[in-house]
Amino acid sequence: MKPKFAMYWASGCGGCEISLLEIHDQILRFAEVFEIVFCPCLVDGKKEDLAKLGDGAIDLTFFNGAIRNQEDEDMARLLRTKSRILVAYGSCAMEGCVPGLSNLSTAADHFEAVYLKNHTTVNPEAVIPGSRSEVAEGILSLPVFAASVRSLDQVVAVDYLVPGCPPEGVQVEKVIETFVGGSPLPPSGSLLGAGERALCEECPRVRNVRRPTRFYRAHQQIPEEGVCLLEQGFICLGPATRSGCGARCPRNNMVCIGCYGPPPGVDDQGAQMIAALGSMLDPGKDCDGEVERTQRLDELFSGIVDPAGTFYTFSLAKSMLGGKVGR
Ligand code: SF4
Ligand code: SF4
To answer: Which ligand has the nearest atom to the CA of 171?
Structure first.
């Protein structure tokens, strides 16, 4: 009997499922080794089918997507019960990712923005969808929208974590090899499919040649090839991001926006990036006292128009801040 595999898509974009295809013909080997018992993206299967399986009947489950609503949470709990090994696969499951940025607003803010103040929505009776609605045909239900986005391990115990938005093909191959290669599995709680350093360590751009004198957004300036983007004034999260993708974005003249999460030993990616900036910014030796120094630093930082969205694109839900507290 083949070991059983499941993959589930909670609140995410679907890119993690597609990333599995990046392993090309290795997927055939994977399909040879595992029996796919539940994967709504590939195989027709219902929650009821899953519920009928015995506890621990699934050997390996990749769970992608964040926990945004009650359905996500119910599926996380069900798959935890049914799976021997549960993997938080991709940035949403691992740390909340882009959906986690919605923690900067309350649930009420979201509904107002989407259903009441949206220019493309016609809603004269100001109807906001509820979790239970009685209509002539019967009762309609929708999953309850949670107060905030959570990562998978904020809801259930997780055995392994795989970073990336989505995980890179070469790293996905390594993750798959971990499970099909026959070697002993790494200790529970390990991060799979990533490097052990900060991204800057695998970036080929030259560093320590200049200090940024202002910050640019991507559309304001074309970066020079070969020189560290951060030192040119583009907010590149390399110092606050885990290696593993091969510095894919900086190699293509784009900043790293941090999708591999914080490097080893760092709990809060945004705080790490702010610390990195603090150590490299120089308001100038010719500043005339503290007031002028503060003014120059304020001018420099005014170029960062969305600090929360820039420093926490992927990691807000797992950060120390967590988001905005609704009162
Ligand atoms: S900050 Fe970005 S561009 Fe600079 S070395 Fe690090 S990864 Fe490369
Ligand atoms: S360079 Fe940064 S944003 Fe780009 S793939 Fe790598 S970790 Fe993700």
So the answer is: 2
CA 129 vs. chain centroid, Å, equals 27
Task: Point out the ligand nearest to the CA of residue 209.
Answer: 1
What sign does the CA torsion over 129, 134, 137, 141 have? Answer: positive
Ligand 1 centroid to 256 CA: how many Å? 8
Rounded mean pLDDT, 79-86:
98
Handedness of CA 122, 127, 132, 133 (dihedral sign): negative
Give the separation between CA 100 and CA 102, rounded to whole angstroms: 5
The residue extents of the domains of the chain are 4-99+148-180, 107-146, 199-318
pTM here is 0.93
Q: What is the pLDDT of residues 147-158, one digit of tens each?
A: 999 999 999 999
Q: What's the CATH number for 4-99+148-180?
A: 3.40.50.700
Instruction: Tell me which residue has its CA closest to atom 4 in ligand 1.
Output: 228
Mean per-residue pLDDT for 82-111?
96
228 Cα to the center of ligand 1, angstroms = 5
Nearest CA to ligand 1 atom 6: 200
